[in-house]
Amino acid sequence: MQIVDSHTAGEPTRVVIADGPDLGTGSLIERRLLFRDRFDHYRRVAIHEPRGSEAIVGALLCEPDEPACDAAVIFFNNCSVLNMCGHGIMGVAVTLAYLGQIPLGIVRIQTPVGIVEANLLTKNEVAVENIPSYRYRKQVSIQIGELGTIVGDVAWGGNWFFLVEQSPIPIKPEYIRQLSDASALIRNELKEQQITGADGEEIDHIELFGPPENDDAHSRNFVYCPGGAYDRSPCGTGTSAKLACLAADGKLKPGEEWIQESIIGSRFVATYRIDPELGIIPTIRGSAYICGEGRLIQQNGDPFHNGIDMIVPSEKASLTRE
Ligand code: PYC
Questions:
Q1: Residue 205 C-alpha to ligand 1 middle, in angstroms?
Q2: What are the pLDDT digits (tens) for 178-221?
Q3: What is the H or E stretch that residue 75 is in?
């Protein structure tokens, strides 16, 4: 597999530019299912150690089946395929520009959950107009032994999120382990109580918020992803879900900027517009940088030919404060 690596606000994206699986000519949704069910070894080779790491989001470039699109992408991570990925779209756009395949300006990219527009403002800066985002449930309260009462909103921003305005743990890098453990407990409790997104869809991303560190920012977040890794960026789909909640509460007007800091202090600048039929359409702006390119090799006899089985942290993890 030939790959180009980039990072968006610290969060890695590995774009598979050649020698990926042959997924045939079905719809993008069918091809994503095929990739998930029949070609998982490609995902493992690209993401699992020793060639990858749990933090990497993979992006398989595909032919779009929407005529209006310039490209299509299937995202995947350390446990399976993803729906949409905001930081990943920025990584894909910067990668296509690096390869000389797109000029500055707008590129329309098909994802399995809808079409997004990436506006390449410079060779590194991208504004992504995401799919429509909305809040599904407000102030859902759950009890977790070690954490007490946790209150959050359920919102869609291209993935399903549970957004906790008052994080029970400080949003600081030295608490990443505790934040991850707490998020795993929250996700598990949502599952046990059958609290889902629309159509019973699993809420697989947990987003905890706290005060920003910089005066011009509005909030700092910690985003826990399916597979147990945390997002080093402020998370494009998570920031979209946040905008949907702010808009629903009347706390952010269309066109007004929201600066979202990540757990590592990187940032996205976000706004939204209202489409009369579709509702809230977020635009998330951030920067991505190329940090590698190459070929993944699987030698005969390599015991880790298809990558090492990942150790996914237990959803039942208990909180240990050190
Ligand atoms: O930026 O949307 C995002 C994202 C999802 C998972 C990791 N990053």
A1: 9
A2: 999 999 999 999 999 999 999 999 999 999 999 999 999 999 99
A3: strand 71-76
Catalytic residue numbers read: 85, 235
In short, whether 236's Cβ falls inside 6 Å of ligand 1 is yes
Q: Which atom of ligand 1 is nearest to the CA of 238?
A: 2
Whole-angstrom Cα distance, residue 259 to residue 119? 18
pLDDT of residue 312: 57
pTM for the whole structure: 0.95
| Position 105, amino acid | G
Domains in the chain with CATH codes: 2-131+290-295 (3.10.310.10), 134-283 (3.10.310.10)
- The CA R_g of the chain, rounded to the nearest whole Å, is 19
Residue having the nearest C-alpha atom to atom 5 of ligand 1: 85
Determine the Cα–Cα distance for residues 271 and 252; give it in Å rounded to an integer: 9
User: What are 313's two structure tokens?
Assistant: 């942290």
Q: Tens digits of per-residue pLDDT, 130-188?
A: 999 999 999 999 999 989 999 999 999 999 999 999 999 999 999 999 999 999 999 99
Q: Computed from CA positions of residues 11, 81, 241, 174, in that sequence, does the dihedral angle turn out positive or negative?
A: negative
